[in-house]
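Crash report, auto-generated. Payload:
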Amino acid sequence: MPNAFVTKKTVLEPIGVIPREAQATASLRSAIESGAFETQLPSENELCQQLGVSRSTVRAAVQSLIEQGLVTKQRGSRTLVNMRVSQLKLPLNAGIGFWDLISQAGHQPSTKNEVVLEREASADIAENLECEPGTPVKVISRLFCADGEPAIYLEDMFLSSLLKKAPKLDSLPTSIYDFAEANLVSPIGYTIAELIPMASNAFTVEKLSLPAGTPLLHLIERHFQANDHPVVASYVWVVDEYVRFSVYGRKRREGVT
Amino acid sequence: MPNAFVTKKTVLEPIGVIPREAQATASLRSAIESGAFETQLPSENELCQQLGVSRSTVRAAVQSLIEQGLVTKQRGSRTLVNMRVSQLKLPLNAGIGFWDLISQAGHQPSTKNEVVLEREASADIAENLECEPGTPVKVISRLFCADGEPAIYLEDMFLSSLLKKAPKLDSLPTSIYDFAEANLVSPIGYTIAELIPMASNAFTVEKLSLPAGTPLLHLIERHFQANDHPVVASYVWVVDEYVRFSVYGRKRREGVT
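Recovered output after restart:
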């Protein structure tokens, strides 16, 4: 039987271009998620060799993985793989689109009732997009189903002026991240979501075909450019029966005295 | 008027002991949150000097801050501070106790009805704590109030065998992280929370003095040791009026081809 601490060789793609840290992190994450390391990462030296990067880059990449909870550094030099986190279903804070989340939850995703229209920003939307009320805003609304049943209704809103080209209904990407990348002048760097429990009202009864009073998780998501400006605001209503989000949180134990 | 890009000197405490990356990260975060850098971090060289650590440690620390969304690396060498994220209220994924979260939301926190008792683990609790059903489990239940009004009811559960000493009701730490550190054989390394919308039922009507049917956010939190074993399971019911959580999520754009 193979020793659980022996790692397979050549599982990591060498890194070619900048930014090296991010690529090293991605290469390591992908190897962890595929189970290549089983219980612990190879030594720093071995990682430098496999990835073809400096020790400094390897340390930065491992620090990223620690922040993401995928590995834990032990006293001494071992870096242990955390399978609970690397196999977490439905992580709300990992920047994954709803289509993929529904699929990860073990359901067959599909979309329905997709509509693209233009509105003038209400006071509420204007605040989320940081524009003047009345500014032209595009709204893409759609229903995500799980195994054919309504699971998530959402409205993605963005300034019409951010569009590089008119979105085509028959080839809308399923993830707002991919949509922004393909159609808007700026991609999405990060998201801040507010979590609001609610009882299904007339609006969601219509959109999700649910009995009034059914508990729903309402998310107000603001998607920002990497450093600052809002790109897209999403109003989302989620049926708990099909999609229940998890959040990974890390206790900050940085030990400053 | 001072140039926004000029940073104050000596805002960072030099780092003394291992693990250097984590301490450098903490020192930088604390300086960012206090507004010391305004819009961007000092250069790597300057950070090495102020923190008294190697370039490799500085790079690892900055990579941590990038993962946490506190800074963004621009093409070239600038590392910009993201004030939206560093001043985010009520982050669910930052490992902060409910007392501090209520306070951050602008309310005066207090606790009531604290009870410590012992139970035998139900099938449900046994699954969360990874023990046999019937194993002795300690339960600490309490009500957190915001400005004197019921805001969060919670039950923290852990194996009685994990206790180093009997907890004293009159000096219970307000955060489960502090409690575990002081009273249990192992501190909490990270948390995975499930987010469940619900309508107030007979149980929560009694515990939170709320009308039946009021929407609540129910969290099932599992707190783990740094690398693996469950330490504490918490069942939490949150009133949206006082405490509305946010989650920061980062789009993974690691650019691997």
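Post-recovery validation: The CA atoms of residues 121 and 134 of chain A lie 5 Å apart.
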